[in-house]
Each structure stands twice: as C-alpha cells, then as structure tokens.
Amino acid sequence: MTLEWWFAYLLTSIILSLSPGSGAINTMTTAMNHGYRGAAASIAGLQTGLAIHIVLVGVGLGTLFSRSVLAFEVLKWAGAAYLIWLGIQQWRAAGAIDLNTMAKTQSQGRLFKRAVFVNLTNPKSIVFLAALFPQFIVPHQPQLAQYVVLGMTTIVVDIIVMIGYATLATRIAVWIKGPRQMKALNKVFGSLFMLVGALLASARHA
C-alpha cells in the first residue's frame, strides 16, 4: 500500500465517521446526559465493537481475496455501488433526530456495554468495512499489514470524530436538534458518499 492510497483511505474514513449515524447519536446523547466521562466510556465501547467488526471483515475478506482476484473485483464494484446507494438514501433521509431518549443516570460500565452493542448490532458498520477495504487492499501484496494499517486508521479517526461529536453535543445541543439543519447535513453527507463511491469505482490498484 502506497502513501497515496493510505491518504485516500484516511479521507474516506473521515467522511464516513463524520456522517451522522447510530454511533454519533449514541455519543451525543451520552455526552448530553452523562457528561464527558460518560461520553469517554461510550466512545471506548464503540471502538471495541468497531474493532470486532474489523477483525471479522479482515479474516473473511483475506481468505476470499487469497483465493480469487475475481471475487476481489466483484466486491470492489459492489462496495462502490453500495456507497452510491447509501448516498442517495441519506440524501432523501428525514432530518428529525431525538437526543433526549436517555435521561437516567447510568454507570460508565453500562454506557460502555451499550455502546459496544450499538456498533455490533449496526449492520452498516460491517458493510461499510466490507465495502471499503477492497478498495484499498492490494491483492498481490502482504495483506495482514494492510489490514492492520486500515483498521488502526479507522479506529483512530472514529475516536477523534466521536470526541468532536461529544463536544458539539454539549455546546450547541439546540442547533443539533433542528430537523432542518440535520436534513441539510444529510444532503451534504449523502453527496459526499456518492462522490466517494464514484471515485472508488473508477480507481485502479497499482
């Protein structure tokens, strides 16, 4: 994997992490109701769930790619198509979002476990990884190191983004609740998803 490919993946990870989803909603609600310590426990739980998905996807795709380059190309195109489809869905998504679903105080352990469950039960998370990894893994090069680099990049980016969401939630909660503003964000991120999908579909490994 070249530095250019890694940088492209870094930008893609940032876009995907910034897109409002179950992890972002969980982080924001936790920060608003339980403060930064609760948010820290929640973020740690999200990354634990994400790491499990990365391992599962890495093992499965690694075996598949080692046996069939055709399967690699098929999954690459399917992943690009999925990103474009997801962009269309997010563009059309409603803007309402409820940030007041958890008013009761919970221990950091429970917040951690809940966040792990949020990511593990989110099908989009593992499909994201299955869609993205083939775009940046070079089949004829050692794959383990590539998976480690992509996995660590994904986790570090998501940690930073979730910290940003937690800070945002505590400071401008009223703005976040606005359905019009959230709908505008959905359109922006939907457009970015479609752009990334189109670029990845046209890209070729060196």
UniProtKB/TrEMBL annotation:
Location, primary (coarse class): membrane
TM ranges: 6-27, 39-65, 77-94, 115-138, 144-168, 188-205
Taxonomy, superkingdom: Bacteria
Annotated InterPro entries: Homoserine/Threonine_efflux, LeuE-type
Gene Ontology MF terms: homoserine transmembrane transporter activity
One cellular component term from this protein's GO annotations in UniProt: plasma membrane
Keywords: Cell membrane, Membrane, Transmembrane, Transmembrane helix, Transport
Compartment list: Cell membrane
Membrane topology: Multi-pass membrane protein
Alphabetical list of Pfam families matching this protein: LysE
Signal sequence, start to end: none
UniProt function note: Conducts the efflux of homoserine and homoserine lactone.
Family of the protein in this entry: Belongs to the Rht family.
NCBIfam families: 2A76 (TIGR00949), PRK10520.1 (NF007812)
PANTHER family: ARGININE EXPORTER PROTEIN ARGO, HOMOSERINE_HOMOSERINE LACTONE EFFLUX PROTEIN
Protein name from the UniProt record: Homoserine/homoserine lactone efflux protein
Gene for this chain: rhtB
